[in-house]
Amino acid sequence: MLQKVVRSAIIDAPIERVWTVLRDFNSHDQWHSAIETSHIEGGERSDQVGCVRNFTLKDGHHIREQLLTLSDREHQSTYCIVEASLPLQRYVATVTLKPVTDGNRTFWHWMSSFATPPGMERELHDTVAQGVYETGFEDLRRYLRGGADQRSRGAGPMPTALPVPTRRIGVARHGGPDVLWPQNAEAAAPGAGEVRIRQRAVGVNFIDVYLRRGWVPTMFPVSEGAPGVPGMEAAGGVLDVGPQVSGFLPGDRVAYLGPVPGAYCGVRSVPADWVVRLPPEIEDETAAALLLKGITADYLLHDLGHVQRGTRLLVHAAAGGVGLLVCAWARRLGAVVIGTVSSEDKARVAREHGCEHVIVTRDYRFAEAVQRVCGGADVVIDGLGDAARDENLAALARRGHWISLGQASGPLAPLAPDALVAKSLSFSRPVVFDYVATQAQLAERAQRVWQALADGAIRLPPIERFPLDAAAEAHARLESRASIGALVLLP
Ligand SMILES: NC(=O)c1ccc[n+]([C@@H]2O[C@H](COP(=O)([O-])OP(=O)(O)OC[C@H]3O[C@@H](n4cnc5c(N)ncnc54)[C@H](OP(=O)(O)O)[C@@H]3O)[C@@H](O)[C@H]2O)c1
C-alpha cells in the first residue's frame, strides 16, 4: 500500500527567492544538511524536465531522482526516485510554493507518496518526514538567512563558503575555436564585496572571440599553467555572498556584466558591483542574451549617437546580437534605419526588427547604396572594422559620426585626423564597460533594457543555445557569419 507524507512550513522570504533555490534541481547539496554531494547526469540543465540528479546522503546512501515537471507559473515541481540504496519504492514527490502576502513570506508544501517493504513503514515515513522535509525547511531558512546574518556581522565566512566544483571553458593558448577546452575546476568562495553565482545562461559576445584570438592580450593573458576563461556576462542564482555585500541574498535571481573575463563556467564569484537583480519576467536566457548587447544599444543610440526622429542611421551586422536591438530601438526613436547583412535570411530578420533599408553584401560594399537611399548616414554603428573602413568614410553624410565599436573583419588600421576633415566627420571608439562603471549606472541601464523589451521598443532577438561544453561550436558559428541574433551557453 502507498503511504503519504505531507509537510508544510512558512519561510520568511519572498516566493521568488525561495523558488530560485528550489527550482534548481541540483541546489540541494548547497542548503540541505543531509546531502553530501550531488550532480546532474549527462551535463543537462538542472531545471530541465527529465534531468536526473545523482546524489549521496551524509549517511552513505545513494539516490538518483528525476525531475518530472517544473512550473515557474505555479511555483511547483514534481520528481521521482529512479534508483536508491534506500528501500523507498514508487516514490513521487511534489513541492509547491504559495505567496503569503502578509509579510511577503512563502508557504512551502512538500508531499510524497511511496511504498516500502513490510515492516519498514514507520521508519521510512519518519526518515522522509523528519530527516528530509522538516530538516529541509530548517536548512533552507538558515541558508536564506546566511547572507543577511553575515551582512549584519560585517565579516567572516559563511558556513557554505567553500570552493564549489564547477565546469568551465579554459584557454591555454590563443587561437581558433579549438583552443576552447571544457574542464573541471573549482569556483572560489566569494571574497569581500563579492557574490557567488550559480550560472544558468552565459552570454556569448564577439569580444570573446577577440580575446580568444589574442587580439587584446593585456585583458586576456593565458598560459598552460593558468588558462584564461572567456566571457563577460551571465545570469543565474546567487549561491552565497561575501563580507561587506548588501542587497543580495542566496537565491536571488541575478545577471552580471563586467570588464574581467571569466563567465564561461557554471559557478563564479564576481564583484557585487557588476550584478543586478532580475525582475521575475526576465528569464535567465533572456538576460544573458540582452544585458551586454541591450546596454550597448542603449548607450550607442542615446548617449553617443543622439539618435532621434529623422536621424539617418547605418547599422552593420544588422541581424547580429547588437544589430537587431539597435535596429528596433532606433526605429522606435523615429530614425531612418539602414542595415548591412550578408544573406537574404538575415535581411528578412533585420526587416522584422525594424531595419527599413537592408543592404545585402558579403564584401563590405555599401557606400553607394547608402548614398542612394538617404544621401549619406548621420551616424554609422560599425562593428566590422578594417574591411569596411573606406566604405564607411564614403557612406557618411556631412558632419556624420562614425562609431567604431568592434572589428569583426579585423582591427581597424590607424585613422589619420585628415581622413575626417573632408566632411567634418567625428569618430568614437567606445566600450560598454565605461557606460556601466558603477553599480547604479549598471542597474539604471539594465532597467532601461528590460523596460524597452516590455514596451516593445526592442524585441527579443532569436537566441541560439549551446551547452557550455560546446563553446567552441558557438564561437565557430559566430565567426562563420551564419548566426542570427544572440548566442548563449547553458552550463
Ligand atoms: N564596444 C562595445 O561596447 C561593444 C559591445 C558589444 C558588441 N560590440 C561589437 O559589436 C559587434 C557586434 O557584436 P555581437 O556580439 O552582437 O556580434 P554579431 O553581430 O552577432 O556577430 C558579428 C557579425 O559581424 C558580421 N561580420 C562581418 N564580417 C565578419 C567577419 N569577417 N567575421 C565574423 N563576422 C563578421 C557578421 O554579420 P554579417 O554576416 O551579416 O555581416 C556577423 O554575424 C562586434 O564587432 C562587437 O565587437 C562592441
What is the CATH class name of the largest domain? Alpha Beta
* Amount of helix: 25-40%
Q: Give the mean pLDDT.
A: 93
User: Can you list the ligands bound to this structure?
Assistant: NADP nicotinamide-adenine-dinucleotide phosphate
Count of structural domains? 3
Lateral strand order in the biggest sheet:
1-7-6-5-4-3-2
Count the DSSP helices: 12
The termini sit apart by 41 Å
Q: Major β-sheet, in short? A: 7 strands, antiparallel
InterPro entries: ADH-like_C, ADH-like_N, ER, GroES-like_sf, NAD(P)-bd_dom_sf, Polyketide_cyclase/dehydratase, QOR-like, START-like_dom_sf
Organism: Variovorax ginsengisoli
Domain Enoyl reductase (ER): 175-489
Protein name: SRPBCC family protein
Write the layout of secondary structure elements.
Elements: E1 3-11, H1 15-22, H2 28-31, E2 35-40, E3 52-57, E4 62-71, E5 76-84, E6 89-100, E7 105-115, H3 121-153, E8 164-170, E9 181-187, E10 194-204, H4 206-213, E11 233-241, E12 253-257, E13 267-271, E14 275-277, H5 284-304, E15 312-315, H6 321-333, E16 336-341, H7 344-352, E17 357-360, H8 367-374, E18 377-382, H9 389-395, E19 396-404, H10 418-421, E20 426-428, H11 439-454, E21 463-467, H12 471-479, E22 486-490
Parallel strand pairs: 15-16, 15-18, 16-17, 18-19, 19-20, 21-22
Antiparallel strand pairs: 1-7, 2-3, 3-4, 4-5, 5-6, 6-7, 8-9, 10-11, 10-13, 10-22, 11-12, 12-14
The structure holds NADP nicotinamide-adenine-dinucleotide phosphate.
